[in-house]
Write a structure and sequence with these properties.
It is a single chain. By secondary structure, the protein is mostly helical. The chain has one domain: de novo design (two linked rop proteins), CATH 1.20.1440. It contains five helices and no strands. Helix 2 (about 30-45) packs antiparallel against helix 5 (about 110-135), helix 3 (about 55-75) runs antiparallel to helix 4 (about 80-105) and helix 4 (about 80-105) runs antiparallel to helix 5 (about 110-135). The chain is elongated and about 45 Å long. The protein starts with a helix and ends with a helix.
Length: about 140
């Protein structure tokens, strides 16, 4: 096989794995970092919210749930076995779902675009964790 053909073959494999073409920015698949960024983004988002009685209570729950997504995933990676791993990933999925719920409840004022992005990320995390659970069981 020629050097050019071998290079093209590697590129096609890379596109298949990452879903991006040469030179494009690949999607991030490091879930520990992605869940960390989600929790951090939630914490930045809540600073933009109006201080209402309901928001104060819902924000507390949102902050806890968003941090718990990543914390449980880290625990899953340190699991003692397949069942323990699956259970902790299920908990991460549950916490992502809870985060999405509290994001939807909040009175956001002018921060609707930020909320929509966080809801989208929570949904994607739920789908990723659901897929991991289905593959491990």
């Amino acid at each position: 096989m020629t050097k050019a053909a071998n290079s093209k073959r590697r590129l096609v494999g890379a596109v298949r794995e990452t879903g991006t073409a040469y030179g494009a920015q690949p999607k991030q698949y490091d879930l520990e970092e992605r869940t960390f960024q989600f929790a951090k983004n939630v914490r930045g988002f809540v600073k933009l919210l109006p201080r209402t009685v309901s928001n104060l209570e819902d924000v507390k729950q949102l902050v806890r749930a968003s941090g718990s997504v990543g914390a449980n995933y880290i625990e899953a990676n340190e699991s003692l076995g397949k069942k323990d791993f699956a259970m902790r990933v299920k908990i991460s999925r549950k916490e992502a779902k809870e985060s999405r719920f509290f994001l939807r409840l909040l009175e956001v004022g002018s921060a609707e675009a930020e909320r929509a992005a966080l809801i989208q990320e929570a949904t994607e995390l739920m789908n990723i964790f659901g897929s991991i659970v289905r593959r491990t069981e």
